[in-house]
């Protein structure tokens, strides 16, 4: 399974995003996300993880696991983002605002813009977790899962110039062949 977190609004106190399943070349919406803000230098409990692709596994120890095991009969371990440079124990869990995370990903079914509410907001977090959790855990256990965090907002890259030698003239105008 291939998942993608598109970070759509990086602000001073939080990062709003959207979680998609991008397996099989299609983008399927799963839920909204909320993370800490971007920082060039990590500040403990106040910095989101770097953009990149990471393996997902289940973490079956720790206080979150113990708490969720008691709360949810379907719980088999926390969704754990592995091998993040400079970070440990990045989990996906419940919460509503930026203060509920320490670099982790919070899931929600609704979202309030962090342009309006500085700390960001996701609502119906439990509903989102109950929907996303079994879907992702099934993949982790059977075929493996990875997630790519994409900084979708921010600087736009200029499109590269078309190489004129790649132009094709068909007699009715020309077009560029893109690779």
Instruction: Compute the number of strand runs.
Output: 12
Q: What's the domain count?
A: 1
Query: Could you give the distance between the termini?
Result: 26 Å
Order of helices and strands: EEEEHEEEEEHEEE
The backbone outline, from C-alpha atoms, is globular
Fraction in helix: 10-25%
Going across the biggest sheet, name each strand in turn. Answer: 1-2-3-7-6-5-4-10
What are the defining features of this structure?
single chain, 179 residues, 2 helices, disordered C terminus
Written description of the protein model:
- This protein is an alpha+beta fold and 179 residues long.
- The chain has one domain.
- 15% of the residues lie in helices and 35% in strands.
- It has two helices and twelve strands, in the order ββββαβββββαβββ.
- The strands form three sheets. An eight-stranded mixed β-barrel has the order 1-2-3-7-6-5-4-10.
- β11 and β12 form a beta hairpin.
- The longest helix is centred in the last third of the chain and has 18 residues, at 125-142.
- The protein is globular.
- 28% of the residues are buried.
Compile the SSE list and pairings.
Blueprint: E1 2-10, E2 15-21, E3 28-35, E4 52-59, H1 63-71, E5 78-81, E6 90-93, E7 105-108, E8 110-112, E9 121-123, H2 125-142, E10 145-151, E11 167-169, E12 174-176
What would you say about this model in short?
This protein has 179 residues and is an alpha+beta fold. The chain has helices spanning 63-71, 125-142; strands at residues 2-10, 15-21, 28-35, 52-59, 78-81, 90-93, 105-108, 110-112, 121-123, 145-151, 167-169, 174-176. It is built from two helices and twelve strands.
